[in-house]
Amino acid sequence: MQPPRMVVKVGSSSLTDEHGQLDPAKLERLVDQLARVQAQGWRVVLVSSGAVAAGVSRLGWRRATLTMPEKQAAAAVGQGLLIGVYEQLFAARGLAIGQVLLSRSDLHARRRFVHIRNTLSTLLERGVVPVVNENDTVAVDEIRFGDNDTLASYVALVVDAHRLVLLTDIDSLYTADPRTHAGAEPIREVRAITPELEQMAGGSGSQVGTGGMRTKINAAKIATSAGIEVVVAAANAPDVLLRVASGESVGTLFHARRRMPAKKAWVAHGTAAEGELYIDDGAVRALRRGAASLLFPGIVRVTGDFREGAVVACRSLDGSLVAKGIVHFSAGDLRVLLERRAAGYTLPPLHEVIHRDHLILVEEVGADGALG
What we know:
Layout: E1 5-10, H1 24-39, E2 43-48, H2 51-59, H3 68-91, E3 97-102, H4 104-108, H5 110-125, E4 129-134, H6 147-158, E5 163-168, E6 173-174, E7 186-187, E8 189-190, H7 195-200, H8 213-225, E9 229-234, H9 240-245, E10 252-254, H10 262-270, E11 275-279, H11 281-288, E12 299-304, E13 311-315, E14 321-326, H12 331-342, E15 359-361, H13 362-365
Parallel strand pairs: 1-2, 1-5, 2-4, 3-4, 5-9, 8-10, 11-13
Antiparallel strand pairs: 6-7, 9-10, 11-12, 13-14, 14-15
Helix pairs in contact: 1-3, 2-3, 6-8
């Protein structure tokens, strides 16, 4: 039985001082806790922001006025500085680290996803601490506050983590922004992420957003849907990671749902759909009963251009998202079969278009568009 795995994400604000420069004391405190958690039998992965902040500081630039290419240049400079600090701090505690830079596109292709999983698993099995960050030098869209929350949730899926810890500068999820609402109350447990909860945490139109909490809610939706517990807690809370590791109530706990197999988790969250299959009411009912594969007779229309093995979305005739899965036929072949059926040809028996083992219902991950 493999040791339990914990993914810890820490943001720039939890690693820097009031001037935006890396704070050695904060880094030391973080690494010390991670080393102690690992010594207790966990295997830890650190998802760390701070590369842009470190680069800006070294270059003497002002972050507020930087262009996107300048942010990417700062990340290129800062990543080496940041990993150098981590290497020294972990080495002083007898631990080796491995740097892993990822972008969202790395997870879209199944083969690359598997290679990333194998690499991270090998590091963990050998007691090495992976230090993961967004590949900011090439990922233009991802250089924005909070993106590493989503990255951390994907990393948790990749390594089949037991717990994801999102460290922030607020000690928990609140009913309102505690910095501006004196009556705000902490929420200690979340069993279901509802639209009301998302609105309260800073959803569209909210007047009480809690600065980055929305991205943590989104990350929690991904991780908990795959059976991974999520804790949002303050990075400066005393021994916060040790307390989380021991099961103590710290910050906000998002309870996990039923654990999802790794391949299904990738289908649900790791990749975008390359096309769509519109299916009739009978097929919708069969899929929602939970035991059926998608068969050709239920398909009405095909959109997109995809090959066998692609991930596609399944929609009802009114356009509602029903499921997502890996197809066994290309879009071209399915269109030919639809044309033959419409012309009255008798089709030979066909194997399933999407096998049930490779299909995720929208109800399994929430109807918020996460499957699309």
